[in-house]
Every structure is written in C-alpha cells, then in structure tokens.
C-alpha cells in the first residue's frame, strides 16, 4: 500500500538505529587504540564500523560551511542570518562583516529532493561581488499539517515576498526547476508595478519550455498519466514526524531513483571508501564522505508542488502556451519591462537541454534587446552550469558583469 511505504521505511530506520549508534560508539573507542597494534586488523574493523554507522539517510539540512570569503584583496567573515521566515522556508542572508555596498541578490534554490546547501559553491562564488540571500527551503516532514499546503502558487508567492523583503533593485537568479516560478514572480510584480520587482532575472538551466529537445527526464514525466505519479510516488509523512500525515514525495524514494541511475558508480565509491578507511588514507576517505554526507541528506517534496510541477511544467507546458496562472491571474511574461534578462544553458545538459531555457527570451517580448543576454556554455552538463571550474571562470564573470551593468 503506497501510503504506508514511508511509514514502513521510518519504522525500519528507527528499529535499526541502535546498530548504527552502537557502531559509532565502538568506532570512537577503537580509534583510541595506539597505532601499530595490528593496524591491518583494526583498520578493517574500523572501516566496517564506520560504514555501518553511516548506513542511513539524514533529513536534516547540512551546514553551508561558508565562514569566510575573499572580497577584492580582503578576506571577510561570513555569518548566516535569517532575514525572514515562513513555515516552509527561510530567506537566509550570508552577511559579510565590514563589506562594501554590493548588489543584493536572491538565489532561488530548487526543491528537488536535496537541501539548498547543494548550492554552497554557487553561493561562495557569488559572495565575492554580491550581497547574497538564498531560499532555504524547509523539509515538509517537519512542517505540521495545519500550516497548509505548498504548491506552485505558494512557491511563487514566497519569491515575491522574499523580494519584497530585499527591497528595490535587487537581482534574482534561479537555478533549474524554479525558473518557471521565478519568471512568474517577475511577471506578476512587473504587471503590478511592484517597487521590489527585480532589476535583473537570470535563469540557469531551467525548464521554461520542455517541448524543445525533450530529455529522458522530460519523456518520463510525460510517459505516465498524472494519476500514476499520485498513486506510486506520493506517501504520507510517518506519525513519528512533526509533519505527520502530510502528503509528500519522499526523499528516500527520490534518492533511490538517483542512485539506481548510476548504481555501479555508487557501489564502487563505497568500496573505495572502505579501502581508504582500512588503509588510513584519511584525506581520500574524507573526500568521499563529504560528498555522501550531502548526497544522503534528503528532503521530501510537498505532494502539491511535485504533482503541479509534473502537470503544469512537464505535461501541459502552461507557461510557453500562455496558459499559466498564479492565484487565478494569468502569468504574462510580456509584461516584464525595464528588467535585465539573462539565460544560461549547458551544451551537455541531459536534464534541461539546449533551447528550453532560451525560450524565456522569446516569451519576454517587453524586455529590450540590449537588456537580454544568453550564454550557452560549451563542455558542461547540468550541474556544470552553476558549479565547478567553468562556472567560476567562464559563466560567473558574465553573470557578474550583467548584474553590475543593470544595477
């Protein structure tokens, strides 16, 4: 029974928790054994205990871990400050001590089964030249049912509210999935002549029009009727959680799908981790552990948000067809004026293919040509659009200059 799958999973994790706790405690004492005493035996035992202690997912957001950033030739301390919060998300400010005045920027993180901390590298780069805020989404399993639902309308409303908190002439950068909501928020605010409408809108690898060169992800979203997704992927949050009985697309199911796509690679990584731990190769082991600490930190998706995204974005293509609404109001991208528009795509993106984000340029007919910028980055896949060396060295400088010219 699909509604009980999440409950059964949680019961299993609770039942096996003492094993993981015991392994962690045993590992702590084992590490007190002086080096040189049967290193090979204790190394293998230590590796086994650590793998057991790590054999679970976490539903808690990992730390961003951004304590300092280089601004010009000065290293400034960074502190996290919640500027505004709702039950579903926080407007998190990365406040730099003694920083010069810089353009305020809202970085819009996707709701895709992981926390916004996946964008820590993006944030760290942006902090060099911008006053950065991020949409730090909360895990629905921790949100009581009486706080209401969270669908596409609520997501877009959060962006409008967050921009209102930032004030006039802020800039909005949306990564991947929320590009539709970011464009919607910009259109609604422009139509209302909202004083806090963004000065620029940057959409990076976002599914504005998934009819263009459909990917396997797009094909899968259209391969099943909407009812199939509701029946097979939506579960109730277990009774042990604060958000008990809220309907969600569970993080552990999403992660299972991700892992199965590259199962051999993940198995090899854990074999390598065990080998590094047994040999005392701490630096190599730490690299793998750091990756999986983030990868295995999963977040549920509100059922309304997931189902509406499948329907409106991937199956019915409401935005490019001019049929998308927000709170019953038509979303009209042509109403966006006096705003810079930048779109970024990756040549090898197999999640959001070339042309799907560029489509925003044709929809936003009210934006003057000299305020429009499009960049297709050669040699990068989906994640390379907003992380890694080419993001830092080739894409970011273009975004930085675009923002500063339009500030």
TrEMBL record:
Residues 205-406 form the PHB de-polymerase C-terminal domain. It comes from the Bacteria. InterPro entries: AB_hydrolase_fold (IPR029058), PHA/PHB_synthase (IPR051321), PHB_depo_C (IPR009656), PHB_depoly_PhaZ (IPR010915). PANTHER family: BLR0908 PROTEIN, POLY(3-HYDROXYALKANOATE) POLYMERASE SUBUNIT PHAC. This is Polyhydroxyalkanoate depolymerase, intracellular. It comes from Bradyrhizobium canariense.
């Amino acid at each position: 029974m699909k509604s009980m799958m999440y409950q059964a999973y949680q019961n299993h994790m609770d039942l096996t928790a003492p094993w993981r706790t015991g392994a962690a405690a045993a590992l702590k004492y084992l590490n007190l054994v002086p080096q040189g005493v049967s290193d090979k035996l204790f190394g293998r035992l230590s590796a086994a205990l650590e793998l057991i202690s790590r054999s679970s997912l976490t539903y808690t957001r990992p730390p961003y871990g951004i304590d300092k950033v280089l601004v010009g030739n000065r290293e400034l301390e960074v502190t996290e400050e919640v500027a505004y919060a709702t039950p579903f998300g926080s407007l998190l400010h990365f406040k730099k001590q003694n920083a010069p005045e810089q353009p305020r920027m809202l970085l819009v993180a996707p709701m895709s089964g992981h926390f916004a901390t996946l964008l820590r590298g993006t944030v760290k780069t942006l902090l060099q030249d911008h006053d950065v805020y991020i949409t730090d989404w909360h895990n629905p399993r921790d949100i009581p049912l009486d706080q209401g639902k969270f669908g596409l309308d609520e997501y877009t409303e959060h962006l409008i509210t967050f921009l209102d908190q930032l004030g006039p002439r802020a800039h909005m950068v949306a990564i991947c999935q929320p590009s539709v909501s970011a464009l919607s928020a910009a259109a609604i605010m422009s139509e209302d002549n909202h004083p806090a409408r963004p000065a620029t809108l940057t959409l990076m690898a976002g599914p504005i029009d998934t009819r263009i060169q459909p990917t396997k992800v797009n094909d899968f979203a259209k391969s099943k009727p909407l009812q199939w997704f509701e029946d097979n992927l939506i579960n109730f949050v277990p009774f042990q959680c604060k958000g008990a009985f809220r309907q969600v697309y569970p993080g552990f199911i999403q992660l299972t799908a991700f892992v199965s796509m590259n199962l051999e690679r993940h198995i090899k990584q854990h074999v390598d981790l065990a080998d590094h731990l047994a040999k005392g190769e701490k630096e190599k082991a730490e690299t793998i552990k750091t990756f999986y600490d983030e990868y295995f930190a999963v977040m549920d998706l509100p059922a309304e948000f997931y189902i509406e995204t499948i329907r409106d974005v991937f199956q019915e293509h409401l935005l490019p067809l001019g049929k998308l609404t927000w709170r019953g109001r038509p979303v009209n991208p042509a109403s966006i004026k006096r705003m810079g528009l930048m779109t970024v795509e990756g040549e090898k993106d197999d999640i959001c293919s070339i042309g799907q984000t560029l489509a925003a340029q044709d929809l936003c007919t009210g934006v003057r040509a000299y305020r429009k910028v499009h960049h297709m980055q050669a040699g990068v896949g989906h994640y390379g659009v907003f992380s890694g060396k080419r993001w830092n060295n080739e894409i970011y400088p273009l975004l930085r200059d675009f923002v500063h010219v339009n500030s």
